[in-house]
Design a protein that fits this description.
GO terms for molecular function: GTP binding; GTPase activity. This protein folds into three domains: about 220 residues, Rossmann fold (3-Layer(aba) Sandwich); about 80 residues, Elongation Factor Tu (Ef-tu), domain 3 (Beta Barrel), CATH 2.40.30; about 130 residues, Elongation Factor Tu (Ef-tu), domain 3. The protein is about 20% helix and about 30% strand. It contains eleven helices and 27 strands. Strands 8, 9, 10, 12, 13, 14, 16 and 17 form an eight-stranded antiparallel sheet that branches. It has a six-stranded antiparallel barrel with strand order 18-24-21-20-26-27. Strands 3-4-2-5-6-7 form a six-stranded mixed sheet, with helices on both faces. The relative contact order is 0.12. Bound molecules: guanosine-5'-triphosphate. The site of guanosine-5'-triphosphate has 23 residues, from helix 3.
């Protein structure tokens, strides 16, 4: 089973290296970390009290009443996603002038000065050398009413698995399109990532989208070009399932910082002649916070793992459901291991608890880091997420050219995990316009809705089938969504309905969701 992404470069709230440990290294007196026995922290609130406090805090919001939202930044390769985010962080005072100058100098030295803003987000040497984002970059900023966690996704089709991992942690999407001649079309045509990203995020439950029509400086702030792009995108967005009221557009130029925070100054003069609408930041400030399922059992799919200080291991992800506090013991699925939360970090601050909808880092102790993997789920020990190897799902087939038949090999994406599988049975199709059901179809073609059975393949040479921690859509929406890919192309999105569970002891605590059969 392969993890979709590499360790996060800049985890929210990542700690500085432990100075005491560094001193020991310097003196050649380093003690084995396993010898340092730390007393794990204890929980401070009873469960009812914790839920009361979480409910109250979420109602009033954090940091002077700000509500948190998770925003995935999507779009075709080179649309300007990282530049937009880098520039926005600077305009919002999240990037020091000296850091900006350092990026400008260093990118200039490499002959890549046009990427100097993107360097704020694209932190690895390889990304900077190639001028492409490869993995999800995490960052955050505040608007007057929102605390926005941003997940800057790669645009290149080779890195779609990383993009899926980012999108599955998001509540809203910021789509960046390149307005320059021919470039919008290249991204929007079949095979471009504009369409694919939009379909993917919508299938993963994202229902709000803000579109930044970028690089308008390149086309001389041509109003008709802006309108042409809005007119082309709007019907597609509606068709993909976004509601009209949840779609917003803003004309911008990320590179020169026009209409991000304001459009004052000479660079914004042309735009001011024909645009009086909101700035990009004003649109982001109105994003609706997600519905938070804090009373369901705790579920936390791990999207990144890194070494924290001392004996703790940092795991980053978005809480799908429930709430936890420091000192709580969590079960790691798959496997039989438990760990204890030593510390919780949100937007760089240590916080006492984390709840559904928040992207946080949990520093886990009392567990060997070998058991903490990208794609694993941390969950409440009293309500363990079941493991499944065969299940049925209702899928919507995307715009494919080669039909799906029984036996088709696929890659199954669930949060940050991709697993080899195959479509073992075609159960039925439903005509989406007439509602007519057809049993046992022979093939599935584009646009169909179908019930299929999916079986995970066996792990290379072991003969033992893979299993994934999942729940039916009815039990937990965020744990019940799946994307199906074949040969680097996303061919369908689905919802789990029925799990054939692994026998005890592999699936401790799991229950058949027979209600979903009806
Ligand atoms: N003229 C102009 N160029 C821009 C603007 N925004 C971005 N660019 C340029 O477009 C190129 C690509 O920008 P990136 O920010 O790396 O694009 P990206 O979408 O993050 O790319 P990937 O993440 O690799 O898909 C860079 O050379 C930027 O300088 C803009 O508003 N105007």
């Amino acid at each position: 089973m392969s993890g979709a992404s590499t360790p996060v470069r800049r985890p929210l709230g990542a700690e500085k290296p432990d100075q005491q440990l560094l001193d020991f290294v310097g003196l050649n007196l380093q003690v084995e970390e396993s010898q340092i026995v730390e007393e794990p922290p204890r929980v401070s609130l009873a469960r009812e009290k914790l839920l009361e406090e979480v409910t109250r805090a979420l109602q009033i919001g954090v940091d002077n009443g700000k509500k948190g939202v998770n925003l995935v930044v999507i779009g075709h390769v080179d649309a300007g996603k990282s530049t937009l985010m880098g520039r926005m962080l600077y305009e919002l005072g999240k990037v020091e002038e000296k850091e900006r100058l350092a990026n400008e100098r260093a990118s200039g030295k490499m002959g890549k000065s046009s990427f100097s803003w993107a360097w704020q987000m694209d932190g690895t040497a390889e990304e900077r050398q190639r001028g492409v984002t490869m993995d999800i970059a995490l960052n955050s900023f505040s608007t007057p009413h929102r605390l926005v966690t941003i997940l800057d996704a790669p645009g290149h089709r080779d890195f779609i698995p990383n993009m899926i991992s980012g999108a599955s942690q998001a509540d809203c999407a910021l789509l960046v399109v390149d307005a320059s001649t021919g470039e919008f079309e290249a991204g929007f045509d079949r095979g471009g990532q504009t369409r694919e990203h939009l379909v993917l995020v919508r299938s993963l439950g994202v229902s709000q989208v803000v579109v930044a029509v970028n690089k308008l400086d390149v086309v001389g702030w041509d109003r008709s070009r802006y309108k042409e792009i809005v007119d082309a995108l709007k019907p597609f967005l509606l068709q993909t399932g976004f509601q009209n009221s949840k779609i917003k557009f803003a004309p911008v130029a990320a590179m020169v910082g026009v209409n991000l925070i304001d459009r004052d100054g000479p660079d914004g003069a042309e735009l001011r002649k024909w645009y009086q609408g909101p700035t990009l930041i004003a649109l982001l400030d109105r994003l609706e916070p997600p519905a938070r399922d804090i009373t369901s059992p705790f579920r936390f799919p791990i999207s990144n793992v890194f070494k924290g200080s001392g004996s703790a291991t940092g795991v980053t992800g978005r809480v799908c459901s429930g709430a936890v506090q420091t000192g709580e013991k969590l079960r790691i699925v798959p496997g039989d291991e438990y760990g204890i939360i030593k510390m919780i970090s949100y937007d760089g601050d240590n916080i006492p608890w984390a709840a559904a909808g928040q992207t946080v880092t949990l520093y886990m102790t009392a567990v060997d880091p070998i058991h903490l993997n990208v794609g694993s789920i941390l969950c409440s020990p009293t309500s363990v997420v079941p493991l499944a190897t065969v299940f049925t799902a209702t899928i919507i087939v995307f715009d494919i050219t080669m039909p799906i038949t029984a036996g088709t090999s696929v890659e199954l994406f669930h949060h940050s995990q991709d697993t080899p599988a195959y479509v073992s049975k075609l159960l039925s199709t439903v005509d989406r316009s007439t509602g007519k059901v057809k049993k046992s179809p022979r093939v599935l073609t584009k646009g169909l809705s179908a019930d299929v059975q999916i079986t995970l393949r066996s792990a290379g040479g072991t003969g033992k089938a893979y299993s994934v921690p999942l729940e039916t859509f009815k039990t937990n929406k965020e744990m019940g969504r799946v994307l199906i890919r074949r040969g680097g192309e996303t061919i369908a999105a689905g919802r789990w309905h029925f799990l054939v569970l692994l026998p005890w002891p592999l699936s401790h605590g799991g229950k058949r969701d027979d209600a979903c059969l009806t």
